[in-house]
Every structure is written in C-alpha cells, then in structure tokens.
Amino acid sequence: MSVQEIQHPLIRHKLGLMRRATESTKNFRELAQEIGALLTYEATKDLPLESYSIQGWCGTVEVEKIAGKKITVVPILRAGIGMLDGVLSLIPGAKVSAVGVVRNEETLQAQTYMEKLAPNMGSRLALIIDPMLATGGSMVATIDLLKKAGCKEIRAMVLVAAPQGIAAVEQAHPEVKIYTASIDQGLDSNGYIVPGLGDAGDRIFGTKQKDS
Ligand SMILES: O=P(O)(O)OC[C@H]1O[C@H](OP(=O)(O)OP(=O)(O)O)[C@H](O)[C@@H]1O
Ligand SMILES: O=c1cc[nH]c(=O)[nH]1
Ligand SMILES: [Mg+2]
Q1: Ligand 2: which of 77, 81, 199 to mutate, most ligand atoms within 8 Å of CB?
Q2: Average pLDDT, the chain
Q3: pLDDT tens by residue, 93-134
Q4: Which CATH number fits domain 3-205: 3.40.50.2020, 3.30.70.1170, 1.10.10.10, 3.40.630.30?
Q5: Is the C-beta atom of 165 inside 6 A of ligand 2?
Q6: What percentage of residues in the chain have a pLDDT greater than 70?
Q7: pLDDT at residue 89 is higher than 70
C-alpha cells in the first residue's frame, strides 16, 4: 500500500480551519467538500489518457481523454456524503456507490447496514471517500464489500488518517492507495483521532448533542 499525505498549501490551510472546535457547521461542511475536491485532483493524477482527433476551429486537433476504467465514487455513509459534491465537481459523470457503515462507539467494531452499488463494479475504479480513518474498521469493511462485488482497483481519500487505521488497511488490503490531508498522531481512549476533527459526521450534519 502507499499512503500519500498531500502537502498542498490550500489543503493545509483549509484543514487548519476545520480543526477549530468553534468552526460553524456551514464552514465545516464547505471545507470538507473543498478538501474533497483537492484530494480528488491528487488521487487522479496518474489516470491513463488516450488521444483522439476532433475538428477544432482551425482544423483537426489531437486532444486527450481519460482512458480505461470508469470511476465510481463510494461515500461511506453518513460522513462520506460530506465530501461527495466536492469529488463530483471534478468527476461529474461518476456513478455513486453508497455504502452504509457505522462504528459501534462501545466496541469500535464497524457494522455495514446498507449498500447500493453501481452496476459492473469489476470494470470500475472505486474511489472511497470518508473524512475519518480512525481504527480502520469502517474502511476495511468497505473494501471487503467492494472486493466481493468484483472491484479490482480501489483508492481511498480521507481528510484525516490515524497511523492505526493506515496500518489496518495496509494489513488487510495492501494494494489500496490512501490519499489524506493529514496523518495525525493517533487515537484517544475512545477511538477518536487526535488531534483530528472530532465527530466528523456530527459536525457535517449538525447533529452534535449540546450536552455531550
Ligand atoms: O476507522 P473507524 O474506527 O472505523 O472510524 C471511522 C468511521 O467513523 C465515522 O463514522 P461513524 O461510524 O461515526 O458514522 P457516521 O458517518 O454515520 O457518523 C467516520 O466517518 C468513519 O466512517
Ligand atoms: O475521530 C474520529 C473517529 C471516528 N469517527 C469520527 O467522526 N471521528
Ligand atoms: Mg459519527
């Protein structure tokens, strides 16, 4: 596996804003989409191209298009939806394969509760999106599910990754490339990434309970 921590100044700046505990839901949401788009730019840098000819304004011109596999974007519900529009702003024609996985906050075990995949998964490059890679349980469960559906090429984009989550993916699925805005220090005793972002789903959807 390879993991790439993207050093682009725009990503570093936007992630810094997201880490502020008082950042509004509106801003947090917008920043997640924006970093989602910037990570997409990096994660698609090596896609193969093929040439073809068109009639331009002054005659025939050779242009290029992305060759090979079609892309399906795979948001891990619910928090992955928070990056989806950003990703689709750069790959507007991509099919979306939604996978519902929730982490049991007591046991930290991932539970899959829904899947609605695009057809012909075996002929697609799957781009998984989720803001948080913590223990890695949710990501590993999603990759397991995609492979069962026939997927052979899988990449993952996460806003923040813990070393434990990276190691878990590497052990279970060593060929999957991970693109992240930050490799953070680790996990706290509740399995939350430190310094992390807190509960990304709650911050994106505005569902954080005031007394928790
Ligand atoms: O690496 P892990 O230890 O599995 O933790 C990471 C997962 O936890 C969060 O989702 P959560 O289960 O809170 O669901 P939500 O998106 O519905 O909030 C996050 O969005 C990841 O999917
Ligand atoms: O830090 C974490 C870990 C799991 N899920 C989150 O939303 N944040
Ligand atoms: Mg959550």
Answers
A1: 199
A2: 96
A3: 999 999 999 999 999 999 999 999 999 999 999 999 999 999
A4: 3.40.50.2020
A5: no
A6: 98
A7: yes
- CA of 199 from ligand 3 middle (Å) equals 5
Q: Which amino acids bring their CB within 6 angstroms of ligand 1?
A: 76, 78-79, 101-103, 108, 110, 130-139, 165, 191, 200-201
Spatial distance between the Cα atoms of 110 and 64, rounded to a whole number of angstroms = 41
How far apart are the C-alpha atoms of 101 and 78, rounded to whole Å? 8
Write down the pTM of the prediction. 0.96
Predicted-complex ipTM score: 0.97
Q: Which ligand is nearest to the CA of 76?
A: 1
CA–centroid distance, 195 to ligand 3, in Å, is: 16
Instruction: State pLDDT tens for residues 138-161.
Output: 999 999 999 999 999 999 999 999
